[in-house]
């Protein structure tokens, strides 16, 4: 999978519901089902050029939405930090279990770990 495909699929995951149903269908057929423009045209009942135009319009719309909102960029910055927080919570749990075993430390570290995981989903 190339970079553009990954980027478009990520944008679609975040903003796909903002496209029209027809745009979503065409996008899904092309990027997720890996169908050709001709195959999609036959399914949708429009020309191959119509599929291409709809796909280009969808891609541009998704990119524009990301430029305006920036949710994907924010997530990509946050994800490494959330992974690090999860790892540190695991280390705290391990140290606590090895050395002290405080129920309060155990509970708080588990809360941190759970929160970090929920923010990543």
Please tell me about this protein's structure.
With 121 residues, this protein is an all-alpha fold. It has six helices and no strands. It has helices spanning 3-15, 21-32, 37-44, 48-69, 71-100, 103-120. It is elongated and about 70 Å long. 11% of the residues are buried.
User: What separation lies between the terminal Cα atoms?
Assistant: 22 Å
**Regarding quaternary structure, how should these chains be classified?**
single chain
Strand content: under 5%
Low-confidence stretches: none
The major sheet is characterized as: none
Task: Report Rg.
Answer: 21 Å
The number of distinct helices, counting runs of at least 4 residues, comes to 6
Number of domains: 2
CATH architecture of the largest domain, by name, is Orthogonal Bundle
H-E string? HHHHHH
Q: CATH topology of the largest domain, anyone?
A: Arc Repressor Mutant, subunit A
Mean pLDDT: 92
What proportion of the residues is helical, as a percent range?
over 70%
CATH superfamily of the largest domain: Winged helix-like DNA-binding domain superfamily/Winged helix DNA-binding domain
Structural class: mainly alpha
Name of the level-1 CATH class of the largest domain: Mainly Alpha
The best one-word shape is elongated
Question: Based on DSSP secondary structure assignment, what is the total number of beta strands?
Answer: 0
């Amino acid at each position: 999978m190339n970079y553009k495909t990954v980027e478009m699929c990520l944008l679609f995951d975040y903003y796909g519901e903002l496209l029209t149903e027809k745009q979503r269908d065409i996008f899904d057929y092309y990027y997720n089902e890996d169908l050709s423009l001709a195959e999609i045209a036959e399914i949708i009942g429009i020309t191959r050029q119509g599929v291409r135009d709809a796909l280009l319009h969808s891609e541009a719309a998704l990119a524009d939405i990301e430029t305006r909102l920036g949710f994907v960029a924010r997530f990509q910055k946050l994800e490494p930090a959330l992974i690090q927080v999860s790892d540190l919570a695991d280390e705290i749990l391990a140290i606590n279990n090895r050395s002290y075993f405080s129920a309060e430390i155990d509970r708080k570290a588990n809360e941190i770990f759970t929160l970090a995981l929920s923010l990543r989903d």
